Amino acid sequence: MLACDFCVAVTATFRVLYVFVVLEVGSRRLVHCNVTGNPTAAWTLQQFREVLAEKALYRFVLYDRDAIYSHQLDTALTAMGVRVLRTPVRAPQANAFCERLLGTLRRECLDFLIPLTEAHFRRILKEWVVHYTRGRPHARLGPGISNPPASLPAPLIIGHYLPPHHRATAQPGLGGLHHEYGLLRIAA
Questions:
Q1: What is the mean pLDDT of residues 15-32?
Q2: Does residue 148 sit within a domain?
Q3: 20 to 30 A from 5, CA-CA: which of 30, 97, 100, 175?
Q4: 28 and 109, same structural domain?
């Protein structure tokens, strides 16, 4: 099941940009993220085409009753083999997964960084998406992350002790705003 939503970001020149996110509900994996200055139903349909390019992966798409999600969009998504689910009127909790994702985007990124241009915002967003999907733990997944890198070692850590011949490392992201921590094996 996919859930999607829009949020607004304002640049340093007071230009309003719209962020479109698509989230896989079960794994909390951020499937797609894009930015536009003028969201239209045609643009939104193209975003869904990019997400739903592989047939039969998803059966449902959940979104709110915003005017951008037109009946033509519903018809096109149904033709792609996906059932459209709309949230009830004035019920943001019905799309809580995307609302939480967008709140996290605001708190972890947009509250500290002011994009200068749309291209700058795309770069910031691209780096934040990597942090969100590969380095940030997700509460629903326990200590896990939604899309761990294949090279991530999984040594057994007991309590607060590090495994022998390992040390903790910190990798800065978004200009030092966030850090991703890992283990580095020390040559014996």
A1: 92
A2: no
A3: 175
A4: yes
